[in-house]
């Protein structure tokens, strides 16, 4: 039964982005849609009394109070329940001016509709059983997607692939629950392998849940952009590398060591991957208090980075204690040997051996010239390979996309672990049954089978008004 039986309001909103464009989109949903449409829209070649659902009509918008012509527009009426919200809907496509679009919206409001709240169209779709809560979240993630990876994962979520994984886990829970109920109802019966099957299912379910939980960190990484810190001693060309990557002079470049005192952060795309590049102060011992604070900030950025480009001057390969600490703590550290254009005799094999054997880098060095651009494609390829490797945690591009989903999976996993321990310890089976049922309830909450109005309000307020 729909939650909206008492919500009889017809809602409307501008669904296109603000500002001027070729066309705008104004949408409405509710029982009065056809009545409002007949008031304000006059098709060129058809009477609105015979309007068909899902047909595009060209006509004129009129202000019904003054009978004045407002704009030429296209319009489509969609009969419920076969619409996005499950209700009668219409969309109007006028010219994309700011004033005329708002004026048409005001005419619709005067005709009996009210302005939609944030996300109210999608909320109505959920409450009218047109989409699940997971799919509603997927729609929001598609709108917010800033990389191909996040877009693919969100689209797979919208396609129902995440729900299938959750349903598979739920089926395993139900199998375990049925086993426990059988042992409770028929204590005298001997069920072959029931204990071993129960524990096997519990392990398999826990593994699937952990896989989904871990996918959230990977998804967040793709959302915020892979962070890469450019580090190294002073005057090795870190700022020049940043400028070359950005193809503009973002950082001050000077021959004076210690020019960069604070970190500089910029965003760019590496192939199709969103990347955050951070240029940092040179790492060295110093008596200058301001420079020392900059070095502390640099080290903090390095610790939080997903990868580090550690830059050397090809003519001055020296190591310091900070480099040793970085290599001990960070896995994705790429040695970048800069200033190839200043090297007279290019005996790079000796340099490579020193970096790998003496400095103990696990990644092969990349040789570049920030001045000429030589080697930059190799450096980008090395970074791209690290990003791809970090993304391999999401199997088949199916994962969770919100902290709500993650918390409910953690909650369900906790109930599963409790049920498994109680089963192994020989605790009353009724207690095992209760934990399994609570675990199933948490899985149902992810999809939206069990939820409450407060959760819905928080979720749908993140949407824009016209969605």
Automatic annotation (TrEMBL):
UniProt-annotated binding residues for GTP: 235-240, 254-260, 279-282
Chief localization: cytoplasm
Binding residues for K(+): 235, 254, 256, 259
GO molecular function annotation: GTP binding; GTPase activity; metal ion binding
Leading EC class: hydrolase
Entry note: cofactor: Binds 1 potassium ion per subunit.
Cellular component GO terms held in the UniProt record: cytosol
Pfam families for the chain: MMR_HSR1 (PF01926), MnmE_helical (PF12631), TrmE_N (PF10396)
Positions of (6S)-5-formyl-5,6,7,8-tetrahydrofolate binding: 27, 91, 130, 467
Family recorded in the similarity comment: Belongs to the TRAFAC class TrmE-Era-EngA-EngB-Septin-like GTPase superfamily. TrmE GTPase family.
Function: Exhibits a very high intrinsic GTPase hydrolysis rate. Involved in the addition of a carboxymethylaminomethyl (cmnm) group at the wobble position (U34) of certain tRNAs, forming tRNA-cmnm(5)s(2)U34.
HAMAP family in the record: GTPase_MnmE
The protein's name: tRNA modification GTPase MnmE
Organism: Candidatus Acidulodesulfobacterium acidiphilum
């Amino acid at each position: 039964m729909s939650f909206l039986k008492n919500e009889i309001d017809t809602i409307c909103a501008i669904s296109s982005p603000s500002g001027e464009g070729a066309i705008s989109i104004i949408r409405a949903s509710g029982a009065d849609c056809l009545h409002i449409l007949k008031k304000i829209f006059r098709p060129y070649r058809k009477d609105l009394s015979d309007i068909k659902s899902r047909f595009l009509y060209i006509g004129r918008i009129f202000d019904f109070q003054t009978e004045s012509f407002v704009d030429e527009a296209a319009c489509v009426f969609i009969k419920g329940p076969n619409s996005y919200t499950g209700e009668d809907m219409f969309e109007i496509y006028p010219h994309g001016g700011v004033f005329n679009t708002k004026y048409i919206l005001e005419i619709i409001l005067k005709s009996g509709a009210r302005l939609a709240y944030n996300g109210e169209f999608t909320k109505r779709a959920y409450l009218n059983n047109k989409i699940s809560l997971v799919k509603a979240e997927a729609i929001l993630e598609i709108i917010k997607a800033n990389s191909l990876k996040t877009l693919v994962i969100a689209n797979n979520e919208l396609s129902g692939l995440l729900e299938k994984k959750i349903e598979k886990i739920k089926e395993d829970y139900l199998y375990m629950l049925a086993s426990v109920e059988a042992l409770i109802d028929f204590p005298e019966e001997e069920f072959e392998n029931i204990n071993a099957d129960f524990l096997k299912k519990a392990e398999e379910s826990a593994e699937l849940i952990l896989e989904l939980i871990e996918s959230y960190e990977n998804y967040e990484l793709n959302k915020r952009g892979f962070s890469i810190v450019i580090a190294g001693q002073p005057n090795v060309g870190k700022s020049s590398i940043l400028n070359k990557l950005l193809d503009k002079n973002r950082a001050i470049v000077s021959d004076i060591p210690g020019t960069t005192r604070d970190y500089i952060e910029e965003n760019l795309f590496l192939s199709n991957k969103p990347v955050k590049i951070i240029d940092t102060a040179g790492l060295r011992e110093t008596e200058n208090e301001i420079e020392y604070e900059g070095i502390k900030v640099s080290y903090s950025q390095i610790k939080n980075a997903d990868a580090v480009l550690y830059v050397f001057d090809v003519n001055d390969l020296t190591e310091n204690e900070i480099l040793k600490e970085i290599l001990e703590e960070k896995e994705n550290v790429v040695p970048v040997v800069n200033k190839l254009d200043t090297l007279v005799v290019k005996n790079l094999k000796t340099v490579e051996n020193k970096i790998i054997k003496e400095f103990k880098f696990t990644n092969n060095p990349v040789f570049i010239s920030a001045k000429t651009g030589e080697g930059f494609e190799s450096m980008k390829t090395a970074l791209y390979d690290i990003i791809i490797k970090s993304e391999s945690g999401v199997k088949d591009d199916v994962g969770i996309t919100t902290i709500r989903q993650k918390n409910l999976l953690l909650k369900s996993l906790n109930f599963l672990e409790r049920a498994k321990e109680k089963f192994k310890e020989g605790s009353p089976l009724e207690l095992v049954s209760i934990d399994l049922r609570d675990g199933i309830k948490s899985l149902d909450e992810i999809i939206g089978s069990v939820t409450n109005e407060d959760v819905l309000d928080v979720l749908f307020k993140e949407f824009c008004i016209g969605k």
